[in-house]
Amino acid sequence: MRLSALMNLPVAYVLTHDSIGVGEDGPTHEPIEQLAALRSMPNMTVFRPADSKETAAAWYYAVTNGATPTSLVLTRQKLPLYDGCPKRALKGAYILKDSKKETPDVLLMASGSEVELIYKAADELEAKGIDARVISMPSFELFDAQDEAYKESVMPNKVRARVAVEALTSFGWHKYVGLDGDVISLDTFGASGKAEILFEKFGFTVENVVEKAINVAKK
Fold first, then answer.
1. Taking a C-beta distance cutoff of 8 angstroms, is the pair 122, 160 a contact?
2. Rounded distance, CA 193 to CA 25, Å?
3. pTM given for the model
4. How far apart are CA 90 and CA 149, in angstroms?
5. Three-class SS of residue 131?
6. DSSP codes of every residue in 9-62
7. pLDDT digits (tens, 9 = 90+) for 180-211
8. Is 186 in contact with 202 (CB distance < 8 Å)?
9. Alpha-carbon distance 6 to 94, whole Å?
C-alpha cells in the first residue's frame, strides 16, 4: 500500500470489519489504530463510508482519480441509507442534516457506522433545545483539499462546540474539533463480546453523544 502511494498507482484497496463491531473476534482482530495509519500515509485517499451511496462515491473516486491509491474502509454492521446525492461525499465532508439556526449550537461529525449515532443524537438534542449540525466525514484527505470557503460552510470557525465520533483511535480528529471540542473514540484496544455490547461499553451510544454535545455547548 505504501509503495502504491509512493509510485502514484491508482490501486483500490478494500478493507472490511473496520472497528469493534467485529466484537466476537476479540481485540486481536479489532483495528483500533490502522485507520489513523492509513490517513497518515502521504498520497493515500481514505474513505470510511456511512452508507452505500458514500461507498459508490468512493468507488467512483478510486477508478477515476488516476493519481493516488484509495482505501475503502467498510463496516460489517448494517447501515441506514441517507437521503441526498452520493457525489457530495467527494467533498470529503458535508452537511448531512443541518441545524435550524443559521449558526448551529454544536457540530456533530463522524464517519462510517457512527454517523447513525450523531444523526439520531441531533434529534435528541433538538428536544433539549440544542441545535446541532450533522456532518458526515468519509474522507479527511478530500475535505482538507477543499477551498477555505467550502470548509467554512461546513465547519464554521465561530462554532467551537464540536463532537467527533469514531469507533477507533481519536488520532487525527483533534484538528477538526479544536481545543473546545470532544472526541468519542477508542484509545485502548477493544474486547471480546457482541458488537452491541461493546459499543455500549465503550460509549458509542446516542445517549453519550448527547451528553458530550451538551457539555461542549455549555462551555
1. no
2. 8
3. 0.95
4. 16
5. coil
6. ---EEEE---SGGGGGG-GGG--TTHHHHHHHSTT-EEE--SSHHHHHHHHHHH
7. 999 999 999 988 888 888 889 999 999 999 99
8. yes
9. 29
Pull the grid cell for residue 185. Answer: 473514540
CA distance from start to end of the chain: 42
51 forms beta bridges with none
Picking from 128, 100, 122, the residue whose alpha carbon sits closest to that of residue 109 is 122
CA atoms within 13 A on the CB side of 76: 17
Q: What would be the CATH architecture of the domain defined by 2-217? A: 3-Layer(aba) Sandwich (3.40)
- Type of residue at 14: V
Contact 165, 122 (CB under 8 A): no
The domain locations on the chain are: 2-217
Instruction: Report the amino acid identity of residue 116.
Output: E
**22 vs 1, 28, 90, 113, 192, CA distance in Å?**
23, 10, 28, 13, 9
Contact yes or no for 172/147 (Cβ under 8 A) = no
Write the pLDDT tens digit of every residue in 152-180: 999 999 999 999 999 999 999 999 999 99
Place of cell 493516488: 68
Reduced to 3 DSSP states, what percent helix, strand and coil does the chain have, rounded to the nearest 5?
40, 15, 45
